[in-house]
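Hi everyone, sorry if this is the wrong subforum. Our group has a chain we'd like a structural model of before ordering constructs, and none of us has done structure prediction before. Sequence below.
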Amino acid sequence: MINTAVALGSALFIMVLWWYGVLDGLELKTLDFRFHQFTYNTRPSDRIVIAAIDEKSLYELKKNYNTVWKWPRDIYALLVEYFRRGGANVVAFDILFSDPDVDRLTTDGVVTDGKFASAMGHAGNVVLAMQFLETANVLTEDNPYTPPLDSLHVFVDNRYSTIARHPSAILPLTQFQRNAASFGFANYQEDKQDGICRRIKVAGKFQDNLFFQLGVAAYLKAQGNPPVDIQTGKSFRTDEHEFPLTDANEFLISWYGKGGLGGVFRYYSIDSLISSALQEQEHIIPLIPSTRFKDKIVIVGGSAAGLYDFKSTPFTAMNPYPGMEITATVISNLLQQDILRRTDPIVTFLAIIFFSSFVSFLFAKVHRIRIVVSCTIIVSVFWMAVAFLLFKTKNLWIDVAVPEISIMATFAASAVLSYYTEGRARKYLRNVFGRYLSPMVITEILDREAGPELGGTQIEGTVFFSDIKNFTALSESMHPVEVVKLLNTYFSIATEILMKNEGLLDKYIGDAIMAVFGAPIEKHNHAHLACKTVLEINRAIKNNFLEGKAKIRLTTRFGISSGAMVVGNIGSERRLDYTAIGDTVNLASRLEGVNKMYGTTIIMSEHTKERIGEEFFSREIDTIRVKGKTQAIRIYELLDPVSVNDESFRRCIEFFKEGLRHYKNGEFRDALISFQSGQSFKADDGPTNVFINKCDNYILTPPAGSWDGVTTLEFK
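Answer:
Right subforum, don't worry. Here is the predicted structure as tokens:
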């Protein structure tokens, strides 16, 4: 429930930021990154060329023609005629011609403007720029709006009012309007977040007349001015193609790369074009023949720094970006159908919901932080990879910033929640198990996806019970304070070894210890760990008490058994104890007592022997049937490798094995001979002496009934 609330809260928070555009700037930066690294179509249409008024053009015209900016209009007339001769498809001027040629007005100003107007009328393919303004009364009576000769047929749906209206506009001279094929507005839409142009308004209104953006107008002219159907807020289309629009009637620009000379568009200096035009007039082979522009769409505009016609685009940081290249990019987008489409907002909405839920689910169900972090990183990278791939292959704009931030926000919120909730749970588990387990095992418990099942669960494990031999008599000879000190030292040594070997200290029972291996964390080598621990404790007790404190001789006896058992918090509502119960536990306890009968220190059941195989030295002692059970089991003595290295003891063990075989077959005299032979090598071997006595008794008084070689215990 808490994790669900976190998911919903995080998703709602991100949606509010998204709805109010707080994250728009970041998303736009990810779009710019995609244009830089994963451009959909790396080359624009080769039909589009740039005729640039560059620094060289300004310098050469001033030097050779003694003219400065603004240039006389007959220069543009010369260019229009030059492009017409070459068969250019469209010539679009990204220059405002709103005032007469004042510099030549007193001499041949009329002729200058007239030449330009006449050249445009003769060419029939010139598109001029205009500009919308947001201040009123700019339009003068000397320059009223006159529809071009080649007017468009435009159909607009019933949401016509959503097309922006403008109070005024800067228009070309009236005679230019009459002679131009069409004209379009050169306003550039800048994103308010960072002032970068990434879209253009397709259409705008002035004095109840509809105008297209300059690039769109040039494209429509190149297509023969087909009828246009505008579905405002949705799309505009011609007979052949449909182009998507945003709700604000904007066309998203699909960029190709850096601008300027050496960029993605082919550049020609107007100085070279003017020289070539003059050479053609004089029938001289030109530097650049006009036929090079056959079927081309020529964009005429400024690229010189002094003309201040540079715009901010996603590629401005790489190179200054002339405004006319925005027009060129729009035309290329339309010609090549390089349409940037943005996914429906419902996709982003669903992504926010999914990622918030997914991250919360991870924190709720997965308790390993490394897995949570890894899965979060994977899904985050996957979303970005899909977004970049679809941009590269389909020119599809999928929001990246908002979904990624939803992942981070939910992760942060869930992490904080986990710190306060799971942190308390982890602290509780450490408090519960800190007395029983080593820090390494506790850490493993906390790192597992599923912790120990508190309340009881069946496991496969190994249990041992230990007891100090003759402790009652020893304690009677000591002061109580010394007894406590002795026990504390003994328990400290044993517990340290136990925890080092990943055992669970179940409890202290007087001078006895009960320990479990394989709980609360499953261990496949639980029998090995138990035997290793017992041997190390036995060795440590001898070293610390026999040698270090010569007056105190401690011998610890152990019973070990492996098998199924139930572990968990067992007890009442008022008192719980984490412990193990079951036949395996009871058997281990009884085997510890069996040591007294055979004069041994470590006895393990056949179940433990099966699990350790030949990893440790051991010998079979007997087959017994404990009180209350009908099933007999073999028992083994676990031997310290140090003692087995003794040659006499090894010979004793060999004879013991031989004697035990005869004993099980009921061959008591042969068994006695073998046991006595072993006794000659080690007189104090407990099991050997026990079986010598048994054989003597059975020789004198043979067992009644059929012999199965099983010793039935009459004590628990």
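For your construct planning: The CA atoms of residues 664 and 709 lie 5 Å apart. The longest helix spans residues 401-433.
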